[in-house]
Amino acid sequence: MMIEDKELREIFNAETQEHIQNIEEGLLRLEKGPEDMKGLMEGLFREAHSLKGSARQLGVNKMELLGHTLEDMLNAAKRGVRSLTPDMINGIYRCLDAIKELLQEATTGKASSVNVSLIIAELKASKGDKATEPCPVIQQAAQVEGPPKCQLPPPTRDDEIAAAPPTPAPIEEISPATVQKAKEADKPDDNPQEAERAAPQEQEYPAMMQEGKKFTIDTIRVEAYRLDALMLHIGELLVMKNRINQRLNDIEETVHVWNTKLSKELSAKVGMDTHEGHELDKHVGMFTGNLNNLKGALYEDDARLTFISKEIEERARSLMLLPLSNVFNPFKRMVRDLANQKSKEIDFVIDGGETKAEKRILEEMKDPLMHIIRNSIDHGIETPDERLIRGKSRTGTITVKAYKKASNILIEIIDDGRGLNIEKIKETAIKNKLASVETLSVMPLTELYNFIFMPGFTTSPIITDISGRGVGMDVVKTALARLKGTIAVDSLPTQGCKITINLPVTISTTRVFIVKAAGRTYALPIDFVKTTFMAPLADIYNVDGQKTMTYDNTPMSVVYVADILELKGGNGNNKADKKSLAEKLPCIVFTLDGDNFGVMVDTLVDEQEIVVKSYGGILKSVRNVIGSTILGTGEVCMVLNPQDILKTIKTKGFTSASLQKVEAQERPYAVLVAEDSITTRTQMKRILEGAGYEVTVSVDGMDALRKLELAQFDAVVSDVQMPNMDGLTLTETIRKNKKYKELPVILVTTLSSEEDMKRGAEVGANAYMSKPAFDRQVFLDTLKRLI
Length: 787
Fold this sequence. Notes:
This protein has 787 residues and is of the alpha/beta class. It is 47% helix and 18% strand. It has 5 domains: 203 residues, Four Helix Bundle (Hemerythrin (Met), subunit A), CATH 1.20.120.160; 99 residues; 181 residues, 2-Layer Sandwich (Heat Shock Protein 90); 141 residues, CATH 2.40.50.180; 117 residues, Rossmann fold (3-Layer(aba) Sandwich). The strands form 5 sheets. It has a 6-stranded mixed sheet. The chain has a 6-stranded mixed sheet with strand order 10-14-15-13-12-11. A 5-stranded mixed sheet has the order 2-4-5-7-6, covered by helices on one side. β4 and β5 form a beta hairpin. α2 packs antiparallel against α3 and α22 packs parallel to α23.
């Protein structure tokens, strides 16, 4: 039977899952012997009662009967007339599993195979059902003031549990009479405490509806897909915001051209001494005023939009951040069941479950964490006898720890078991022909550990349902690559193993370098970027057919973007005057899995925060590409995948044909413009690009210095009066660096006195041009002569 009403169905599903999880967590605490036994039993009883009540309200009869039986058993244990033995707790777990199946039936319509009468018979036949004396632990809790300590007997192995006695034949349907009988039995007994418990629940609704009472709703339930849709639209809002900024630049330029040129030329042609001239002048003035007002209004709207969109984005992201306990807590039951199955004693500890991450990260990390924990149970933690021989306690410990560090989240999975068997890893690597004996003998431990993440790699001598199939850890690596995360392994033989996962808090947006290569624009995520520098092409040499250069005293593979993407036509274009030989190219150094590799581009344009649009269908598996984004100019830009680039570089026989040692390609001259005024900055950029130069803009001297370190430039054009660092200080700083001793610097400013020009010459400027007397052709001729 499926619940008809969609809204009620969704609410019932979420509420029931919450009750089940709370009961499971309570049982796990119960097995460890908590101090507040009485409070814990009260909580378990309330959860079972609420679960039963919800099922009754919506007519889910089978679940109601199981919930009623569960409530009765917990009530008896709470009152001390029934013992909660390990056998009994196992029976409750089986009852909860049956309720989960019935929940799926009620919410999806998919029929379950649950036999309710059989489950109830097993529960009542479990050991401890016929206890006539109150449970000592509960009795102590009732008599002794203050929370008593309790230690339940150790869990019993499944093969030691006595078989249940014959049970009645299964029933297919629950009759209305049976349901009514269960409802009658649900009435509170003569126990005063039970009466007190029931009373408030029956009075709560009428009291709430009394006249004069203010009714407020503090929380609401929202389906996850609605939040996902919200984040998608916020991503579109960010794209539109970037496009509006670009439009404002266009408007700035239009207004500037009209004010400085077109309006004056138009008035001059008509003549001001005629009636038509006076009329035209009046209309031109009116149009100019309206245009300037429109520009000002648009800037105000843009500022307001920026503020609102930022607020919406931050608040929506906070809604999508959920505690990691949502992922961690369900593992408690899994660890308990697998420990019993493997005849091991394991204490599962969670630390930092309140740490928050984006919803998608939680969803994607469930399976990887499950694989790691299962491996710790199967391969890591020893049997009690083996641990005692090694001088350890009988009970092993698996700790899952999470904490936030800067903008990332670290998750550590630590066990105090055997640790990784290095010799077995080497044997398996040799057997699978992954490395030679000689290579393995000199390989660092960190690289040896990485073998466990390779597909099909396993040191287990036998395949089980828990591990040994050679799948699992490679799934972990793949999932982390999708989430832009990393993983590291540290192990000590016989002492244990620690696996550290590094994840971003959010992956809705990502910061990238915008680069140009082969005449096209690309984005490279900066998550794994170690550094950037200008790489001399003369320093590139071949090692086994792979282009290589020495970085940090170590050989490092380098590759040109166009070769990775198999683009034709090289990396030059015919936009402007070119040098006969490009001596250096920007090199972005990535660090992944302990490997450094360089990606070389023609120009490092900018650093931006973007929304990545992933590909679907047949494009989903395209190598070296994550997806696309839309830049502020409206250009569609591909976002490259550093993990795939590393795999491509490691492919045997791959070579970067464009990075030849002595056959470097030509490139257009690159100019760095430093200007705080958006109007002047836009105009300068257009002038230079119209003349064929490749232009990078910066908003002040500090920004210019940063970009000067990231790319190679043939000249710097700078304003003088700028915030943070003015043009004179910028020029002086440039000249102090031997690397930029010959770099041409042109100062373009409104400060045109002799003293100002003298100061410009003193700090090392090659040219000093005044904005009031600015002449486009003179400026271009000066730049061409200096370069």
